[in-house]
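> tool_call: predict_assembly(chains=two)
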Amino acid sequence: MSWIEIAVFLVLLALGYFFGRYAERSHYRSILWREQESLGFPLLTLRTPPSSLARCDASLVAGNVVVSVDYFKRFLAALRALVGGRLKSYESLLDRARREAVLRMKEQAMDRGAVVVMGVRIETASISKGKGQAIGSIEVLAYGTAIVPSRG
Amino acid sequence: MDYEPKIIPEGINTSREHPLREFFLLVGGISLVVVLLVSVLAASADFLLGYIPVEKENQWFAQRHDSSAGDTGPAAEREVEAYLQQLSNRLRDPARPGFRFDLSLLENPAPNAFVLPGGHIVVTSGLLDAVESENGLAMVVAHEMAHQYHRHPLRSLGRGVVIALALVAISGADGSGLAQQFVGGTAVLTQLGYSREQEREADATGLELLLRQYGHSGGAVEFFAAVRELPLADDEPPVFLSTHPGIDERIDMLQAHARHNDGPITPLPAVIGEYLAQVEQ
């Protein structure tokens, strides 16, 4: 082990911490603001629309997000894996990815003039699966049926 | 059907705890456990390996290392090796029989010497070039012999094996490279502390051997002074990353224990000059 290796490790850790934290804070600010903005727009997990909406147009809306793990979070998670317990450093990533995916789906529905999204489902995709340590990202896909009142 | 918008409170799916708090707790806790584990294993290995008779060690590591007899004229090399062997015989501690020393020469410009289990001491041609007198050379040889008197080579070997096995047992189960690197790095830093302690011990005992032979400690710092003048010396890593204590600390220690520093200095035999001239060609 040399001086250089330790320095590289500390620099990566600091970069991961400061950039990761900055990204997380600004992302949460944006999420909270947009959630507040679109609070009045209903998302339902019901599969069938209520009878009042039986004569509307329906279309698929979806939002997907991929958030990368930073070096600092990965290091915390690696240490956590030795002793067990909540992987707090990854929990916020999943929270951000889920809410961002839902917001994107919602924004798409609002753009189409929908009044509600029915049958909302949330899934994780798997880009990084099987790549081991190569990527390390969290992927969330949210989709549903946007109900748009038919014209005329 | 009525829809009533509600805001879901924060902090259900995430933690409000500052990430640095978790970081310092994990880093501190895990390093503490690794340091304790390495210390306990190292102390046990040190303790138990001391019970292996030196005769057994000599038997296990009896194989003589084949010094590379190249084009440099094996005659001069053999003569220098015979001189080194004779020098180490003079430095022996009569109170500690059973130890065997086998000196050999390695053609390498870096001034260095090391000892392997079984009492095999290797001296580089660069070291012969760096010292000015027999006393300076004797200090380095005595230092390596002191390592063997304290059974350091065997102890380091045993300690390394035990700690490596323990690390594989801990981090081998979890495939995460990062955790493995961190645990391994902490263990290495802890082990380096033992290595530096051994060097201090060997310096002290080596100086005793030197004093017994020559009656004074003149020339003891020659080698360290020469190393300090090397261009490499500026790149010396900080002490906590090094296997050896800092050069200045070692010179200070030697000078603090030095006695009658002004005794007669024995010159190096002529054959060393001949050998070095051949090596340089």
